[in-house]
Amino acid sequence: MGQNSFEEINLIERGGNYGWNTLEGKHCYSPKANCDPSGTTLPVVEYGASNGCSVIGGYVYRGLAIPELAGNYIYGDYCSGLVRGFRYETGEAVGDLLLVNSGVNITSFAEDGSGEIYALSQDGRIYLLTSMAP
Q1: Are 91 and 82 in contact (CB under 8 A)?
Q2: Do residues 2 and 20 touch, judged by C-beta distance below 8 A?
Q3: Of 49, 78, 101, 129, which alpha carbon lies 20 to 30 A from 117's?
Q4: What is the H or E stretch that residue 83 is in?
């Protein structure tokens, strides 16, 4: 979720205050400076508009085809087509990695019964996340 300048991923907890509309990501939104973020929970990941325009939430990878991604939260961006993944360990995002530059407008993600992840795109196609390793 974001407004104009930053997209963010939050770890949602019951009753959590994620700062809207005081914050956008970890940055002041209203007012633009010297805002008071006390009492808010900051996002675990954020990225600027230069890296995309609309975060598309995904799934924690639980499949077997790409063992190095086990436990990573997979997400993407509608405008850039980038697919990224990170692990959440001891209260923070670890290893936020670019996995795929898909070149398509990602609209959603899906998970099959085996835990494999698919990206759905505006062109009506479904893409399976696969490893580039031989």
Answers
A1: no
A2: no
A3: 49
A4: strand 82-89
* 86 and 61 in a common domain: yes
Phi, psi of 50 (to 5 degrees): -70, -15
What single DSSP character describes residue 2?
B
- Number of other residues whose CB lies within 10 A of the CB of residue 76: 29
Structural domain of 14: 1-51
The CATH number covering residue 104 comes to: 2.40.10
Taking the C-alpha atoms of residue 19 and residue 36, their distance in angstroms, rounded to an integer, is 9
d(CA 78, CA 108): 9
CB 62 within 8 A of CB 34: no
For the stretch 29-63, pLDDT in tens is 988 899 999 999 999 999 999 999 999 999 999 99
Sheet holding 92-101, edge to edge: 55-60, 73-77, 82-89, 92-101
Q: Render pLDDT for 82-131 as a digit per residue (tens, 0 to 9).
A: 999 999 999 999 999 999 999 999 999 999 999 999 999 999 999 999 99
